[in-house]
Amino acid sequence: MNFSAQHYPYTSRRTLVYGQRGMVATSQPLAAQAGLDILKAGGNAVDAAIATAACLTVTEPTSNGIGGDAFAIVWLKDGLHGLNASGPAPAALSLEALQQRGLHEMPAHGPVPVTVPGAPAAWAALAEAFGRLPLTSTLKPAIDLARHGYPVSPVAARNWERGVTKAAAHYQGAAHQAWFKTFAPSGRAPKAGEIWRSEDHARTLEKIAQSNARDFYEGDLACQIHDFMKEITGFLTKDDLARYEVKWEKPLSINYRGVDVWELPPNGHGIVALMALNILGQFELDPTETCESLHLSMEAMKLAYSDGKAHIADPAHMKVTVEDLLSFGYAKERSRLIGSEALLPAPGTPPASGTVYLAAADGEGNMVSYIQSNYMGFGSGLVVPGTGIALHNRGHNFSMDPSHPNCVAPGKRPYHTIIPGFLTRDGSPLGPFGVMGGFMQPQGHLQVVSRLVDYGLNPQAALDAPRWQWLGEKRFEMEPSISELLVEALRKKGHQIVYQSDAGSFGRGQIILRNEAGTLCGATEPRTDGMVAVW
C-alpha cells in the first residue's frame, strides 16, 4: 500500500507508531501493555492476544466479559487460520418454548437470550494450537488487575455510567442483583481514575487458567452457571456447556483493487463487508473522497447489508451459499442498481451454483486479529453470583420468524456481529484490522479498507477519518467533522442524513500493518482509550 494521500481532506489526530520486535493495539492501555509484556516474556503474537483479551474482560467490562463470544484470524508462517468461538443456543431454547412464555420477539436482557459463551474456549484453543505459553502465564496479568484493581480509563468510565443508567431502567428483579453488586457496588459506576477490582473475577480467571478453560465448561464454574440459570428460569445448562466446541474455519476473501480482504464466514457478518467491497469495486472512485465516491460507498453498503440481514445465519441453515453471495456476477448485478439517487434497498436473489478488538504481531511474522464481546454493552445484565462472569445476550439476534434462516432453534448459532479482519497481498500478510461496534462493524471495515486502498491513507489516518453509518432505508448518521457542503450534496441525492456527535456510535478500531522491510506500523482509535504498545 502506498500511504501518500496528500489530497485527502482530513488530517490524522494521532501519530503512527512503529516497531520491529512486537506490537499490540487495542482499546485500553493496560490491556495492550499486558500483551506486550507477554511478548517480552517469550510469548508469541497469539500468547499476547490471549493476555490482552483476558485483560480486556477486566479493564473494559462495558464491552466484553468472560461470559461472551470471540472470533480470531491468525497468520502464522503457513498462512491464515480462522477461529469461530461463538456459542449456540441451548438445547432447550426453541421457538415453541419461547412462544409458550408468551414471547413474540427475542428479549435483549435477562436469561432468555443467553447462549453458550465461547471466549474461554477461544483462549484455550488458541493457546493449544499456536501459543508458546500456558494460560497460567497469559491470564496472570488479567488476574492481577482484577485482584489488585486498576484506575478506570475515561471512555470506559463514560460507557460504564451509561450502562448503570440503562441497568436501573431495564435490569429488574433478583436475577440482576449480582450484576449491580459487581459493577455498581457503591450504587453508581466508577469514575475515571477511580480504582475498580473484582476478586470474584480474579478467582474465575484462575480456575480457567489452571484447567485450560475446562472448569468453565465441565467443572465447578459450569455447575455454578447451571444452578444460577435454573434458579432464574434460563435455558442454559451444564450439558450445553459440556458439549461446546470451537470451530476452526477457513477465512473468506475477495480481492479489492489488488488487496485481499479476509473475513470469517457466517454465522458472523464479515461477509457483508466483502459483499459491499465487491460492489464498490465495480466503480472507479474519485481520487479524493467526494460526494460521488461517498454516495457509491453508502449505496454499496445498503445493498450488502440488505442481503446480509436476509441470508446470514448458522451456515447449516442458510438457503444460499457464501460463494454465490461473493460471486463477481452477483456483485455486478447488484452494482447495476446504483444510480445517481439514493435507493431503498432490498435483498437480492443470488444465482445458485460481524465489543472489543485487538491486533497483535511479533517479530517472527505471526499476527492476530481478535475480537470478543458481550453484546450491547454489558450483555444480558446477568452476573453469575460469586464468579464475576457477566453473561452475554447473543440470542437477541435470533429471529422468531419460522421462515427466516436465522430463526431460533436448539444448538443453532445466531447471526453474529463481531468480525475480525485481515489484509494480504500476493499471498503475503499486510496485517490485522478491525472496527468494533455492533452493526457498525462491516460498515467500519468498508470505510477503513477503502481509505487504505483507494485513498492511500496511513493506518492512523484511516481510523481518524470521519465515518458514516447506515441506519435503514435511506437514513444515515454522520460524524460532525464531515463537511456540511458534502452532507448537503448527499441530501440532494436523496440520502436522509443527521449528524451524530457521540463518537461511540461509529465504532472503535485498531490496525497493525507490516511493510516489506518487516517494520510494524500500528494505529488505534481517537474514539476510545486505545493504545499501541510497541517493542
Q: Briefly, what is this?
A:
With 535 residues, the chain is of the alpha+beta class. It has helices spanning 29-40, 45-59, 95-100, 119-130, 135-138, 140-148, 154-170, 177-183, 199-210, 214-218, 220-231, 238-243, 270-280, 291-311, 322-325, 328-335, 441-453, 459-464, 484-492, and strands at 17-19, 22-26, 69-76, 79-85, 150-151, 195-196, 247-249, 252-256, 259-263, 356-362, 367-373, 382-384, 389-391, 421-425, 428-436, 468-472, 475-478, 496-499, 508-514, 520-524, 531-534. It has 19 helices and 21 strands.
How would you characterize the overall build of this protein?
This protein is of the alpha+beta class. The protein has two domains: 17-248 and 356-397, no CATH class; 250-354 and 429-521, Gamma-glutamyltranspeptidase, large (L) subunit, C-terminal domain (Serum Albumin, Chain A, Domain 1). 35% of the residues lie in helices and 19% in strands. The chain has 19 helices and 21 strands. It has helices at 29-40, 45-59, 95-100, 119-130, 135-138, 140-148, 154-170, 177-183, 199-210, 214-218, 220-231, 238-243, 270-280, 291-311, 322-325, 328-335, 441-453, 459-464, 484-492, and strands at residues 17-19, 22-26, 69-76, 79-85, 150-151, 195-196, 247-249, 252-256, 259-263, 356-362, 367-373, 382-384, 389-391, 421-425, 428-436, 468-472, 475-478, 496-499, 508-514, 520-524, 531-534. Strands 1-20-19-15-14-9-8 form a seven-stranded antiparallel beta sheet. A seven-stranded antiparallel beta sheet has the order 7-4-3-11-10-2-21, with helices on one face. Strand 19 and strand 20 form a beta hairpin. Helix 1 packs antiparallel against helix 2 (45-59) and helix 2 (45-59) runs antiparallel to helix 4. The longest helix is centred in the middle third of the chain and has 21 residues, at 291-311. The protein is globular. Mean pLDDT is 94; it is low at 3-8.
